[in-house]
Amino acid sequence: TPGGTDPIDFNSAGTPGGTDPIDFNSAATPGGTGPIDFNSAGTPGGTDPIDFNSAGTPGGTDPIDINSAGIPGGTGPIDFN
């Protein structure tokens, strides 16, 4: 992703370029195998108690904002781009 600098690849291993052993796609999403569901609980199939949607995003409730600070509404100190 433009500007992406995180050494951890958050793409699913089933997604082109995805190399992370943890699959961040929902198990309900094609190719999703990770036991942790990083979809918002407000997103179809989302079951993780941690909501990785921005609090500024519809349904986003997590106090940690995983949107980049350079993305509208992004406030989290950790940039997951």
TL;DR of this structure?
With 81 residues, the protein is low in regular secondary structure.
Describe the structure.
The protein is flat and about 30 Å long. The chain has one domain (10-76). The protein is low in regular secondary structure. Helices cover 0% and strands 0% of the residues.
Instruction: Label the overall shape.
Output: flat
Stretches where pLDDT is under 50 for at least 5 consecutive residues are: 19-30, 33-37, 47-51
Head-to-tail CA distance between termini: 6 Å
In percent, how much strand structure appears in the residues? under 5%
Please describe the biggest sheet, giving its number of strands, its sense, and whether it closes into a barrel. Answer: none
Number of helices: 0
Query: What is the count of β-strands?
Result: 0
Mean pLDDT: 49
What is the alpha-carbon Rg in Å?
A: 13 Å
| Alpha-beta classification | little secondary structure
User: How many distinct folded domains?
Assistant: 1
| Percent helix | under 10%
Biased composition (Gly residues): 71-81
Region (Disordered): 1-81
Layout of helices and strands, plus pairs?
Layout (H helix, E strand, L loop, with lengths): L81
Give me some keywords for this one:
little secondary structure, 0% strand, 81 residues, single chain, 0% helix
